[in-house]
Amino acid sequence: MRDLYKRLRIPEDASDETIRQALPSTDAPLRQDVEFVLLDPRRRGVYDRNRRVLVTIGKLRAHLGLTYTRLWARSDFKDFWPDLAPADPGPRKRRVNSLMIAHAIRTAHRHGRRHAARWGKWWISLWAIVIFALLVALWRHLM
Amino acid sequence: MTDDSPMPSFADVFHRTSHKQSVCILAVLTWVAACDGRIAQREQALLDKVAEAVDDVAELGVVEAALRLGRPHDLELACRYLRANLDRGGKRLLAQLAITMAIEDGSLAVSENFVLQFLADLLGLSPRAFAKLFEQMAHRPFPHAGDPSSLRWWRQREAGREAQPESFAVAGDARDDDSPASDEPMTPRVALRVLGLEDGASREAIHGAYRKLAKTRHPDRFAPLGQAAVATATEAFKRLHEAYAVLSA
To answer: Where are the domains of chain B?
Structure first.
């Protein structure tokens, strides 16, 4: 089921006149559906009732972590996925996209590996010195 | 009820009561009853009985009044509690109770179909398990909700209603949301619908369907969910028995 109001970008209490004004901007199949459903008071009443239930369910699913479940046909109800991001996040100095995040993770991994390698070498050197010192002490003691 | 009403909110009742499970079950069942736009007289009577059944919680009426509006934050509170506190058996029983409530009038509205799908997900039932459960409780397969935003759905629905004005609810996916189906008197046709049977069902089929449904919908089965659940199941069971009495007379 689609959210016809969302597709038309009009409020849910829009008048018939407002709906008619929004129609030219839509494609032909959607226009036919809107005219048939929203411009008939009885059909619109039934549609509005079902839509309200889906809006409530969409919010509940999002808040309860049930958006990606098996019975929820996501392609059928994608209009009822609420936007959980804040409406206005404010000015952002720098855009972050997935490529930048991937690059940051890769860099961190590389750095981590180099870091680990250096520490490994340091420990090997330390152990070598300690063992050498012990061997020298032992040789001097025996001699 | 508005927010500045002197009545306590659902959250107030929930935090104060020691019968949290009953309050949450009532909340979910009220939503199932009210999601098709109105609570029919029979459904109202059923909810009143449930509220009376839990003596210690005088404010269950408040819960019912608040939940009629289907406010997401109230429902979220109830859903969170039930999901976290019911064990696997309890969740299955709650799903059965919600199905019983939704098909109380013998048909399933589109909005009720959506709510049942949500509850199945909430209670961790797979689509297959839920369809099986629905078939056990309703004696018919779980219907597809359809798309009320499409012209095609409306044409099919209206053509079906003209062709078979009274049996539409039995044959189709859902009942006409405008008709007060829940308040219909118990005629043989309504009784057949309650038992999940088609017109012209034989006496053996009627008896078999009643026995099967009586076993799955018996109120004693819902005792683990508390008094509210048992009261709901008892009232729904009376309706089933009434249907059988009409058909076997």
So the answer is: 10-171+181-248
A58-85 pLDDT per residue, tens:
888 888 888 776 666 666 787 887 765 5
Of A47, A61, A71, the CB nearest to B148: A47
Q: What is the mean pLDDT of residues A101-120?
A: 67
Residues of B in contact with A49 (CB under 8 A): 36-37, 111, 177
**Chain A residues touching residue B36 (CB < 8 angstroms):** 49
Cβ of residue B158 closer than 8 Å to a chain A Cβ? no
B36 at A interface, C-beta within 8 A: yes
The Cα B136–Cα B130 span in angstroms is: 10
Domain B10-171+181-248 = CATH 3.40.50.1580: no
Angle at the Cα of B5 from the Cα atoms of B1 and B8, rounded to 5 degrees: 90
Mean pLDDT split into 10-residue runs, chain B, 249 residues: 56 79 83 77 72 59 59 85 91 91 82 91 89 89 88 85 43 43 72 85 89 89 84 85 87
Q: What is the DSSP string of B85-131?
A: H--HHHHHHHHHHHHHHHTTTS---HHHHHHHHHHHHHTT--HHHHH
- By C-alpha distance, the chain B residue nearest A71 is B127
If we measure between CA atoms, which residue out of B111, B189, B97 comes closest to residue B148? Answer: B111
Of B118, B151, B178, the CB nearest to A57: B118
- What is the complex's ipTM, to 2 decimals? 0.80
Which of A39, A40, A52, A60 best probes binding to B when mutated, by most B CB atoms within 10 angstroms?
A60
